[in-house]
Amino acid sequence: MAASSSSLLHHHHPQLSFTSKSSVQSPPPRYNIVRASTESSSNNSSSNATTNNAAAAAAVTFSKGGNIRDDARRHNVVHSHRFSAKYVPFNADPACDESYSLDEVIYRSQSGGLLDVRHDMDALKHYDGAYWRALFDSRVGKTTWPYGSGVWSKKEWVLPEIDSEDIVSAFEGNSNLFWAERFGKSFMGMNDLWVKHCGISHTGSFKDLGMTVLVSQVNRLKKLNKPVVGVGCASTGDTSAALSAYCAAAGIPSIVFLPANKISIAQLVQPIANGAFVLSLDTDFDGCMQLIREVTSELPIYLANSLNSLRLEGQKTAAIEILQQFDWEVPDWVIVPGGNLGNIYAFYKGFQMCKELGLVDRIPRLVCAQAANANPLYLYYKAGWKDFKSVKANKTFASAIQIGDPVSIDRAVYALKNCDGIVEEATEEELMDAMAQADSTGMFICPHTGVALTALKKLRDSGVIGKTDRTVVVSTAHGLKFTQSKIAYHSKEIKDMACRLANPPVNVSADFGSVMDVLKKYLLSKAPKY
User: Fold this and answer.
1) Residue 425 is inside which H or E element, if any?
2) In the prediction, which pLDDT does 318 show?
3) What is the distance, to the nearest Å, from the Cα of residue 322 to the centroid of all Cα atoms in its chain?
4) Measured between alpha carbons, how far is 133 from 350 in angstroms, rounded to an integer?
5) How far is CA 400 from the centre of its chain?
6) pLDDT of amino acid 231
7) Compositional bias (Low complexity) spans (predicted)?
């Protein structure tokens, strides 16, 4: 087996050689780009000058016909080649000179630790905060490739050296940040509660934000003839949905390891529909993760789990988006569900970059919310960050965070310590009641958001989060992916759970009198009490 694996890894292996499609003549430009070169901007420029330059950089005039990807190749709208990024050991000593090109296939440092993507901050600081704010704002709602994406509208901060024509995007991001007025006022005693609905995305979860980055880089690696044939992941559902969709869009094979009978049908059908090679394994997520790591070390399959720090570069843009949607005002709190724990670090990194580059002057406090049935970070936090121990994750309705041995534990702890963060947990009954309560105010959230809302309630009850604190709860997936759990709750079919907010349908005889009796009783129960 070792010999055959080694031969597979060699990118000149005849069975693994690929030929590119015949070139197609490019159609005429769809629009003309009018821009001011960023070369003329510097730290000495006034805010007005940099703002004008940023706006001009994204100005377009449209004409009929054409192809937006071809236009991107013709017109380098922003000179992102001036910027660069590389892999470095996570949280390494500043004197450490170990680094790797993003074009290398590598997931761990020499010591076996995590890697991080480090940007050339000095180069980015050639432009002030006003410039970056104006540039990012100017790209919202546009179809200019690839800047119509909420991720790639921050391309200079994500993958600055990738060619726009190599990017694989469904114009993900730019997700709804809505004021949860009724829920906040009625159940939390808050006037300034917001929900960042990352589930309103291409495949229905925040995982799209990271996967567009990772698959785009794989697309680049394949064009550079790197030894990559496909992309693989272990998944509790959402990662596999995102991976399979973006790989399908790029024509790249995707391989998915799923824990058998532990994810919803809605999540399972997504990678199947998108043509992924799905392996259903008799183990939990942690077992799938161990297997995919072993397999990717032997075969030319690129690892797509959050051990790979590229995905976090896309996920951090959700934090930047929150600031952007608040007109660059910083909320007091941001609450994020946590399982494998890459996302809490991604949010920290996005906020911290905005502070360091002068877009804002502070960062919010972060809360990581875990299911009590899979809570290693919570236990570590309650122990004063002493003696971390993984746990055996028990079954939870918040299946995407049913992880007992999180890959990004060190990243999460770093983020929380540097923002005075908090970790909370939610029992199964608490998270399901919170989900039902939120749904009753017009939302349709996933169980993981129920975990985050439970954390909010506990921090409100204890007075940690004040009634006037601007608070954002991150909803990580769409409720439509979890209809089975909602049906079970409202049917009161969940063992040892009261389902106190269940709202089952009422069976009524199909005659006028019976219907009238039931409706009168219902309306009386809803009438104002004087």
Assistant:
1) strand 422-426
2) 98
3) 13
4) 14
5) 12
6) 97
7) 36-52
Return the structure tokens found at 112: 């076996």
Residue appearing with tokens 């724990």 = 341
Contact yes or no for 437/501 (Cβ under 8 A): yes
Q: Which of 128, 122, 159 is nearest to 52 (CA)?
A: 128
| Token code pair at residue 269 | 């059908």
CA atoms within 13 A on the CB side of 51: 7
Q: 395: which DSSP letter?
A: P
- Pick from 297, 347, 346: nearest CA to 107: 297
DSSP string, 433-471: HHHHHHHTTT--B-HHHHHHHHHHHHHHHTTSS-TT--E
Pure H helices in 81-194: 121-124, 129-139, 155-158, 181-183
Which residues are within 8 A (CB) of 504 and not within 5 positions of it... i.e. 6 or more apart?
A: 490, 491, 492
Contact between residue 80 and residue 39 where contact means Cβ atoms under 8 Å apart: no
Q: What is the mean pLDDT of each run of 10 residues along the chain (530 residues)?
A: 39 36 35 34 46 52 62 58 92 91 95 96 97 97 94 98 96 97 98 97 96 98 95 88 97 93 79 94 88 92 90 98 98 97 97 98 98 98 97 94 94 98 98 98 97 98 98 97 95 97 97 97 88
| 3-class DSSP state of 479 | helix
**Residue 458 corresponds to which tokens in the numbers above?**
């506990």
Query: Which residue do the tokens 């001009």 mark?
Result: 56
User: What global pTM score does this model have?
Assistant: 0.87
- The full DSSP string for 222-265 is HHTT-S--EEEEE-SSHHHHHHHHHHHHHT--EEEEEETT-S-H
What letter does residue 428 receive in the DSSP assignment? H
Residue type, 261: N
Kindly tell me the burial class for residue 224, based on how many C-beta atoms sit within 10 Å of its own C-beta (0-12, 13-18, 19 or more): exposed
**119: part of which helix (H) or strand (E)?**
strand 115-119
| Pair 322, 354: CB distance under 8 Å | no
Token representation of residue 148: 């119509």
Q: Which two tokens stand for residue 287?
A: 């077992």
Are the C-beta atoms of residues 314 and 158 closer than 8 Å to each other? yes
- Structural tokens at position 143: 């179809």
Closest CA to 253 of 270, 273, 275: 275
d(CA 257, CA 252): 17
> What is the model's pLDDT at position 268?
80
**How far from 398 is each of 200, 446, 459, 487, 506, CA to CA, in Å?**
18, 8, 20, 15, 28
What pLDDT, on the 0 to 100 scale, is given for residue 286? 85
Contact predicate 94/415, CB 8 Å: no
Question: What number of residues does the chain have?
Answer: 530
| Phi, psi (degrees; rounded to nearest 5) at 97 | -105, 15
Please name the amino acid found at residue 303.
Answer: L
